[in-house]
Specification:
The protein is 64% helix and 18% strand. The protein is an alpha+beta fold. The chain has a five-stranded antiparallel beta sheet. The radius of gyration is 26 Å and the shape is rod-shaped.
Length: 223
Amino acid sequence: MPSLKKTLHFLASALCCGGGVALLGYGMAVNWSSIAVDCKSSNGTGLGAVTMGLFEAIVVLETCPFFDGENDIKVMQEMEGVSLVLQYIVIALLVLALIGSAGSILITLYNSISNPYETYMGPMGLYACSGCSVVLSFLAIIIYVSNVHLGEFAVAWIRMFATPAELSNTKVTMELGYFLVLPYIAVNLLAILLVYLYVHAAYTRQKEQQKPTEDAPKEIMMY
């Protein structure tokens, strides 16, 4: 059976991973960005905006070009070309990050009741799973923010409902779902740190216990 200290370290790490799954799961369900543009027409100046999640978006028009309106669209159905490919990549990376977190939870819970130090089910397994989750989720937010800023799909969606208005001055704002990836990354790093601190302390203690024998005079060790 593992020591109480080991159990506490690995259970705390499991809680961090579980919290990370909850954060990312919720983040994937809420809005990630909003894109607003000025809308000019013969009727004056209005506003067009897209509030966008990973799967759905809402196009809101305020006097753009003549009336107010709100339209729901499916992101995957309306995106095209490179922007669509990048959107699929972002979702795939986030799903893989969740799978990595699930693996981390299983490994930490298993280690809290056993001692598989030298196998892939030990600390190295946690480092691999949580480390992959961190890298994948970080890549996802980099690709997403690049896609939103460089792709013109949001302006095209607004133009679908705002013809013949003139659209200009695009402004992008990142929303809650995007920012929730950052604490997800943080808790995964914390999960790794908690286990590393335990492993490092255990290794240091083991080396200290070996010192009396290593430092003993050769004459004494011969008898």
